[in-house]
Write a structure and sequence with these properties.
The chain contains 9 helices and no strands. It has helices spanning about 5-20, 25-30, 35-40, 45-70, 75-90, 95-100, 110-130, 140-160, 170-180. The longest helix has 25 residues, at about 45-70. It is mainly α and about 190 residues long. Helix content is about 70%, strand content about 0%.
Amino acid sequence: MKIRDRLLLAAERQFAEYGTLEATLSEIRQDAGASVGALYHHFPDKAELYRQVWTHALADYQRHFWASIADSADARGGVTAGVTAHLRWVTDNRSRATILMSPRPPGVNDSDSNREFLISVARWWRTHARYGAVRDLDLDLLYALWLGPAQEFSRQWVGGGIRTEPVEVAPELAAAAWKSLCGTEQPS
């Protein structure tokens, strides 16, 4: 594994466990087995390292989420697959999920990859809304109804308030999401 990747993984673990304020560059560097020069060669400061860790976690999440809905046979399959993918990703990637639940660093909203992801999801949604399979909703409200309960469950689990792994409640939360989002089709 390349030194940059080792630094990103070490930083991910440290930021997830200690938070961005308490994690130190010295501990991250030692955890990665990197020299001071190697650390500063790749990341000029802690803020840039955090931004890169956060962006890497977001891209990984978005890749998994998009793969779950992009090839769905219908709207219901995509909605439920999206919830399930969200909960599975959080369960399988607790440190990365912790990072994404931390404050978003400046500039991430404006990245090309984030814009492309949001455009793709909105396009997928509008396609199904046009023929009445799902409700025609603003993207912000759509997110709250689609992934809000799954995200809150995940946040509680990551924080230690819930012991049940998120993926274990996927069927129930996916069914609830579908019931709140379906259009002229009847939920069942």
